[in-house]
Design brief:
The strands form 13 sheets. Strands 32, 33, 34, 35, 36, 37 and 48 form a 7-stranded mixed β-sheet that branches. By secondary structure, the chain is an alpha+beta fold. A hairpin with a 2-residue loop joins strand 35 and strand 36.
């Protein structure tokens, strides 16, 4: 008599409760040996092979492909008799054939990513890579449709794309496999499967020849059901740890682990953290009573499910409604005059009212917490093409002008309609606005969802005005709060002339002033500000604490250091002439006296020219030290003669920042003796020293280290941080540091214990990164530890000007806490660069003239005059993503550039960073020998908001390194084109 053994659904993990049969690899009657793969099944982890360890023949009945089998449930049978193909109908088989699950083809799963808190599944839209294609880190392999938008799927594993691959149109649950990556091309499977909206496999076929492996017709009468106890464990949060039980609970409760703080050892997320977390909208929705209805239902689309879950979850909020009628006619006319949409104008009005009533921007956080939010990120409902609502977010409304908001909205709205927003563009609003008045709706209430305290519904204007209704969460705000908010909003909307005036109004108050504006400081910030004001007819006095203008840039910074840098470059370059066929030039010698004469003549000439220009345009230039007596009176102490006072309407502080000397034992004594020097006093050196210690590995330290190394000085650089050039983009800095370490000694994570000695015989005692005590004997110690504003002599308190640490606190217009007193340049912190100060000076002048001009640090730039030179314009990818921008980058090494090969300057790279949503170039980063020249084109790209297409189509001359910009733009544009929706 035949012996029968049951093949049961094996259990891969303690979270697995069932599996879905994907394929049968053996057919009834086939011979089965120990270790054979008989089937593949889909588990809560991946698609897995079922391996048996019993010899015999496969017998039926076999579970159908696409069927769900509980763990330990029968999938099929093995018999020891050939030809015994089926067990009897009433036969009970108790002997189990041992089985084991192994990863299908040992591949790494590409899982459906969770791109928003409400997302539970995605639909495969396109595959950008084909089965068998080589995959690199960062490649876009597919696009998927979520509940909000169509998004790219990026992978971070190298290998080859392999099946089973979920075909286009398949519906995949979050964290479930879409395809696999295998290490060897020989391991690639060309299987493609189709999954229904119920997440069941309905067909499997070979992709190459389309031959069907198996098929199972989906049942219209058996829609998928939600089974929370058997839900898949939540995916591990990026870069963090969660216990297995916490992941299991999170999967059952629908909790996003990325939003939790871990209370376990070393911050591990444990079950208690999940239990106390806010459940997802899906979990809340399905925990409420459900009503059974007759009929055969169709599966909801991703967007329909997201709306259903969030609306059901909203029923848990204790809400109330308040309505005001507001007359919008003046606002509409003012918006038209300012050339902005009414939607943007209303959003700005809501933000202005919210500054007085910030509780409406807060939200409830379980359990019994209120999150207070100062940034106004308002979601504005937009009807999507094909139905449904998408809610793009206007961010930082409280900080932006109407024109800036209009530019952002003009970019967001068309992409919202086609559902092409990045997650950061629709996730986590702080307040929501829904306008159905455009459809003629006379009154309606909107429904707030968890995460906001209030939503505003705008209806069509009638005889009594425009009904504006707010539905609010009573746990966060009460009726009085909302009523007061709407009352102020009514005043703001009905009186737009108070804040939407198109006629510039100068903040310089009227009065009997000696000067309408006094500028303190004659550096780039003060001088550019004064020149712009005088050009527009404003009488200006510029108080400078030196005989000639120019500030640190001219006398102690940019200009003198580049004169030294040029001399050092000539010496350095001559050493490489022989490689290009020019001999006899490699014995270049430094003539220090001639170099210094050249440097000083440049400074004197430029200083005299600047003073002549300033006086020529009628700026009243005065030498002296200025300080405030009160908010409209200045005390001036000239270098000779009696002090006097000046009355002013407005003031601009541009006094710079001196070098910062940290409290290292012996440092101040060294400054007194002259053995310790700074970026202010290094210009007094009688000759290049033989040995010099440089404390600080920032831009100043690196520039001086290379200059003096080329002059023949032995350099030791000591940096307290774990790397030098911390302010430079990571990859650029890493490459440059490796070059620098070949030229002089660099010690990071250093602790300076003592500085001692005299000029020519200094000693630095320090501990290296491992704590070992070290000594360095040298001629001088250069303190290159940055700069810090010093406002102690300005007497700011008497004028009411507030500080932010050591710096003067200003907004992005340069305006201090006193509306008619501005500050620019190093004295306000941030980028301490000459061109930054000059830009901020011009911004301050524009605002003093009544214009609305703002400094945008995201468009700023800088060059480190090392060899090769590092430089940046705009944002890095990391900075962009921190601001919620979906940024992508392309990079190209200089080693492939023809011009670089010709000149032997092949170190480094250029990186181009673009906003994926708009294709605008938002950053360029350099490590090249001629960054100071090349960066000009990058500045125009970023500041003008140029697109990849514009740069790609521009004609660059050959052979020049500017060609790389076009090549980078084309390369990045091609990549984005390939990953776009087909």
């Amino acid at each position: 008599m035949s012996a029968h053994y049951v093949i049961t659904m094996p259990q891969l993990s303690d979270t697995m409760t069932e599996g879905v049969v994907v394929t049968w690899e053996k057919q009834i009657g086939d011979r089965v040996e120990r270790g054979d793969i008989v089937a593949t099944v889909e588990t809560d982890k991946a698609i897995m092979d079922v391996e048996v360890f019993k010899a015999g023949y496969l017998a039926g009945p076999l579970t159908e492909v696409g069927a769900t089998v509980p763990v330990s449930g029968a999938m099929g049978y093995i018999t020891d008799t050939q030809g015994d193909l089926n067990i009897a109908t009433d036969e009970v088989v108790t002997e189990v054939a041992p089985t084991e699950m192994i990863p299908h083809h040992s591949g790494i799963a590409i899982v459906m990513p969770q791109l928003s808190d409400t997302m539970t599944e995605g639909i495969v839209v396109t595959w950008e890579k084909q089965i068998g294609d080589a995959i690199k880190r960062g490649d876009i392999v597919a696009t998927v449709e979520t509940d909000k938008a169509i998004m790219d799927v990026e992978v971070f594993q190298e290998g080859f794309l392999s099946g089973p691959l979920a075909g286009v149109g398949s519906t995949i649950e979050v964290a479930h496999p879409m395809a696999f990556i295998v290490a060897d091309a020989a391991q690639v499977s060309d299987t493609e499967v189709t999954l229904s909206s119920a997440h069941k496999v309905v067909e499997a076929h070979h992709q190459k020849d389309k031959t069907v492996i198996s098929s199972a017709a989906p049942s219209a009468s058996a829609p998928a059901t939600v089974n929370h106890p058997g839900a898949a464990p939540a995916p591990r949060p990026n870069g963090r740890q969660a216990s297995p039980y916490a992941r299991k609970m999170a999967g059952q409760m629908g909790v996003n682990l990325s939003n939790l703080n871990g209370t376990g050892p070393n911050g591990v997320i444990v079950a208690q953290d999940v239990a106390q977390a806010r459940p997802s909208m899906k979990e809340v929705a399905h925990s409420l009573p459900q009503v059974e209805v007759p009929g055969i239902g169709r599966a909801m689309s991703s967007m329909e499910k997201a709306v259903a879950h969030s609306m059901t979850a909203a029923l848990t909020l204790p809400t109330f409604d308040v309505t005001f009628n507001i007359k919008p006619e003046k606002l509409i006319a003012a918006a038209k005059a300012r050339k902005v949409s009414v939607t943007v104008a209303i959003a700005k009005a809501c933000s202005m009212a919210m500054l007085k009533h910030p509780t409406l921007n807060n939200c409830y956080q379980p359990v019994d917490k209120i999150v207070e939010r100062s940034e106004h990120n308002f979601g504005i409902a937009v009807a999507a093409d094909g139905g449904g609502l998408v809610v793009p977010i206007l961010r930082s409304i409280e900080q932006k002008s109407l024109e800036e908001l209009q530019a952002a909205w003009s970019d967001l709205m068309p992409r919202a309609r086609t559902r092409k927003l990045a997650p950061a563009e629709y996730a986590n609003p702080t307040f929501t606005i829904s306008n159905m008045g455009m459809f003629g709706v006379t009154h309606f209430t909107a429904i707030p969802t968890p995460g906001i305290a209030a939503i505003m519904a705008i209806a069509a204007t009638g005889a009594d005005g425009m009904p504006v209704n707010i539905t609010a969460d009573h746990r966060v705000v009460n009726g009085a709060h909302v009523a007061a908010y709407l009352a102020d909003l009514k005043q703001i909307i009905e009186n737009p002339e108070s804040w939407m005036n198109t006629t510039p109004t100068s903040p310089i108050p009227d009065g009997d002033w000696d000067f309408p504006v006094i500028v303190i400081g004659g550096g780039p910030g003060g001088e550019d500000c004064a020149r712009d004001l005088i050009e527009h007819g404003v009488k200006v006095a510029m108080i400078n604490n030196a005989p000639l203008p120019g500030g640190e840039c001219l006398w102690r910074g940019c200009i003198p250091s580049k004169a030294w840098r040029h001399g050092a470059d000539l010496i350095r370059d001559r050493a490489h002439d022989a490689e290009k066929g020019v001999s006899g030039t490699n014995q270049a010698k430094l003539d220090w006296a001639t170099l210094e004469q050249h440097r000083k003549s440049i400074l004197q000439t430029r200083g005299e020219l600047a003073l002549k220009t300033d006086k020529g345009v009628k700026i009243d230039v005065r030498e002296g030290f200025a300080s405030f007596i009160d908010e409209h009176t200045m005390h001036i102490q000239p270098p000779q003669g009696e002090a006097y006072t000046l009355r002013f309407g407005a003031a601009v502080i541009a006094t710079g920042a001196p070098p910062f000397v940290p409290p290292i034992p012996g440092a101040m004594d060294g400054l007194t003796s002259g053995g310790v020097i700074t970026s202010d006093t290094i210009w007094n050196l009688p000759a290049p020293p033989k040995k010099m210690a440089i404390i600080g590995g920032g831009v100043i330290g690196v520039e001086m280290a290379q200059i003096f190394r080329d002059f023949g000085t032995e350099i030791l650089m000591l940096e307290a941080k774990d790397r030098i050039l911390a302010e430079v983009e990571d990859e650029i800095a890493k490459q440059l540091v490796e070059i620098l370490k070949q030229e002089f000694s660099v010690v990071t994570s250093a602790k300076i214990n003592q500085i001692s000695g005299n000029v020519g015989a200094m000693n630095v005692a320090y501990a290296d990164s491992e704590g070992n005590a070290q000594q360095f004997a040298c001629d001088y110690v250069l303190m290159a530890t940055g700069k810090r504003p010093d406002t102690s002599k300005l007497n700011l308190a008497s004028a009411g000007v507030q500080l932010d640490g050591a710096a003067i606190k200003v907004d992005n217009r340069g305006r201090s806490s006193v509306p008619h007193i501005y500050a620019v340049g190093d004295v306000i912190g941030g980028y301490m660069l000459a061109h930054t100060a000059a830009t901020q000076g011009r911004v301050a002048a524009s605002n003093l003239l009544g214009e609305d001009h703002q400094y945008n640090q995201d468009l700023d730039c800088g060059v480190t005059f090392s060899r090769p030179q590092a430089g940046f314009v705009g944002l890095s990818t990391t900075q962009a993503k921190a601001r919620g921008i979906d940024a992508v980058e392309a990079k190209m090494p200089m080693s492939i550039d023809a011009k670089a090969m010709i000149t032997g300057e092949t170190h480094g790279m250029i990186k181009l960073v673009a906003d994926k949503a708009t294709n605008k170039i938002i950053g360029v980063h350099f490590l090249t020998e001629h960054t100071d020249t090349l960066i000009g084109e990058a500045v125009m790209m970023v500041s003008a908001g140029m697109t990849l297409k514009q740069v790609a189509q521009a004609i660059h001359p050959h052979p020049t390194q500017t060609e790389l910009f076009g090549e980078l733009a084309r390369r990045l544009m091609s990549r984005l084109r390939r990953t776009a929706k087909k």
